[in-house]
Write a structure and sequence with these properties.
The protein is of the alpha/beta class and 212 residues long. The protein has a domain of 67 residues. Helix content is 35%, strand content 26%. It has 8 helices and 9 strands. Helix 4 packs across helix 6. The longest helix is centred in the C-terminal third of the chain and has 14 residues. It is globular and about 50 Å long. The structure holds adenosine-5'-triphosphate and magnesium ion (MG). Adenosine-5'-triphosphate binds next to helix 1.
């Protein structure tokens, strides 16, 4: 599904990683582990090519998505491709609107049908529905950190992308919820790349592990 070949990244004179080779198999979970500041989130920015918006980056190598080198694609094509490669960032990018609208607005952009049904299903998947079903039309920024993290995960699941890039998706959750969400991701039939600090947690999820 995705093949990263000899990828090297630097910001200015600072080398982040060199000659990285990663193979992402379709409908499997692949984990990226490594110390803080090693370049895990930057790797995600390379995959979806949002790195193009960072200052003074230098990137070499290939990022093949179904055989297409994303590094050579025009910005117009990338906008379309990014609808199939959804990035869930480390800091929940909650918009100053209601919980429902945080999900519905992007569902409309992606022309998702049966929005209400899909929103409820996505909220159930991240174990958020029961907690917030009575306040769907209240401000999403008043949710707790862990609730916000689950909301952006629900938003990504709702879009049913081919590839999900999850950057520390359970970092603000307790052990029980992290475990339950891990099980849900295992059952979710799509290609998932997950960043985690925790090797033990990753072991439960997948055998495809790359350490930066
Ligand atoms: N736009 C940028 N310009 C310069 N340096 C940057 C930029 N973005 C990130 N860095 C640096 O690159 C290194 C890798 O950052 P990155 O966010 O990819 O690490 P990470 O592995 O995701 O860390 P964490 O586990 O703490 O989230 C860090 O030293 C960071 O300070
Ligand atoms: Mg990071």
């Amino acid at each position: 599904m995705l093949n990263i070949k000899n990828l090297s990244l630097s910001y200015g004179d600072k080398h982040i990683f060199e000659e990285l080779n990663i193979e992402i198999k379709e409908n499997e979970i692949t984990a990226i582990v490594g110390a803080s500041g090693i370049g895990k989130s930057s790797l995600f920015l390379c995959i979806n090519q949002m790195i193009r918006y960072e200052k003074s980056y230098k990137l070499k190598g290939e990022i093949l998505y179904k055989g297409i080198d994303l590094m050579k694609e025009s910005e117009d094509n990338l906008t379309k491709i990014r609808k199939n490669i959804i990035y869930v960032s480390q800091q929940p990018d909650i918009l100053p609107m209601s919980i429902y609208e945080n999900l519905a607005f992007i569902a409309r952009i992606h022309k998702i049908k049966n929005i209400d049904e899909k929103i409820n299903a996505a909220l159930e998947k991240v174990y958020l529905y029961d907690e917030i079903k009575d306040r769907l039309h209240t401000d999403a920024t008043s949710l707790s950190g862990g609730q916000q993290q689950r909301l952006i995960l629900a938003r990504a699941l709702l879009l049913e992308p081919e590839v999900l890039l999850l950057d520390e998706p359970t970092a603000s959750l307790n052990e029980e919820l992290s475990h339950k969400i891990g099980l849900m991701l295992k059952e979710h039939k799509s290609t998932i790349i997950i960043i985690s600090h925790f090797k033990s947690q990753v072991k439960k999820l997948t055998n495809n592990v790359y350490s930066l």
